[in-house]
Specification:
The chain has 364 residues and is of the alpha+beta class. The protein folds into 2 domains: 3-106, Phosphorylase Kinase, domain 1 (2-Layer Sandwich); 119-359, Aminoglycoside 3'-phosphotransferase, Chain: A, domain 2 (Alpha-Beta Complex). 46% of the residues lie in helices and 12% in strands. It has helices at 3-11, 58-75, 119-135, 154-167, 170-175, 177-185, 188-196, 240-250, 268-282, 288-292, 294-314, 327-344, 346-359; strands spanning 20-24, 32-38, 44-49, 94-96, 99-105, 110-111, 205-207, 216-219, 225-228, 235-237. A 5-stranded antiparallel beta sheet has the order 1-2-3-5-4, covered by helices on one side. The N and C termini lie far apart (47 Å).
Length: 364
Amino acid sequence: MDKQLIEQVLNEYGFQPEQFDYRPFGTGHINSTWLISIKNRSEQYILQSINRNVFKEPERIAGNVRLLSDYLKQHNPNYLFVGAIPTRFGKEMAFIGDIYWRLTEFIKNSVSFDTLSDPDQAYEAAVQFGRLNRLLADFDASQLQETIPGFHDLGLRYQQFTDALEQSSQNFKLKADSEIQKAKKYSFILEYFNSIKNSRDFPNRAMHHDTKISNMLFDRDTMKGICVIDLDTMMSGKYISDLGDMMRTYLCAFSENEPDIDKIFIRIDYFEAIIKGYLYEMGSILTKVEKDLILFSGKYLIYMQAIRFLSDYLNGSIYYPISYPEQNLDRAKNQFKLLTEFFEKEKKLNEIVNKCLNNNSFNF
């Protein structure tokens, strides 16, 4: 990134070039990130440029974060919500070089991870995401704008799959035939969701929508969870989005980029850690209908991601970056294997859910 551009951006926040150092930070693939260190002071900040290819209207992110920050300051002032630092002109974002920029506090003595190595990490993350959900339980989520329209809309994703299938080449369809059949086989997940989505006991809530482990900060010394970060996808949605995304991304030791599907299996102890952690915070908030959907949440998110990868493959891999031609097909195979694991282990997983629900060790 051009040094002069960074200097222009930080000038919007009142910093002069001689006052700071900066370096690239983190491993995110959507927004570019830098760590800003103020010379001769202990202050550090995180600077991000917003990816306009993903977030078409960054002002919606700023508006949502402002609404949530104001609500939490009023109702839970001690909660650590990493909102945007305003520019010297009072704006939530700076607009420099045809790019939107955001500055946030750098949380001292914190660490984040790209992969999980211990069930305790899954528990801490589930607690933190659950806590954010709980503290926003009474917030009117209809105030939030969509920052990525249809992000977790399975109906939209299935329509995109059928459109891709219709338009794809015969060669792509032959190579992906097994996964295409699985996508059709599991379409009952969408049918079931459609049958309950409008239930009054299945409300829309303020959800994070991207609960992968790298969006969590841990205390470097104690490894306890500190807070949730990366609030770009905070939108109105069903609670299964957050819980289901944790299941999708925490349960297997390997990510969706692992092409050897024999390595894809559910770690039962991680599943239990997620359920215990999330219910500790949300157990007293979830309705009966929502509690009945705990296991379904994992199926919903895994299935949705599987057909997204498959659709992109059929479209010629125009959305997800690839390092070899068949990668999106391999990603789809990976996710369908994880989904198959869910159904094969359903009895055991249900036993864990019921045990956790009956334990009643919820945070009131």
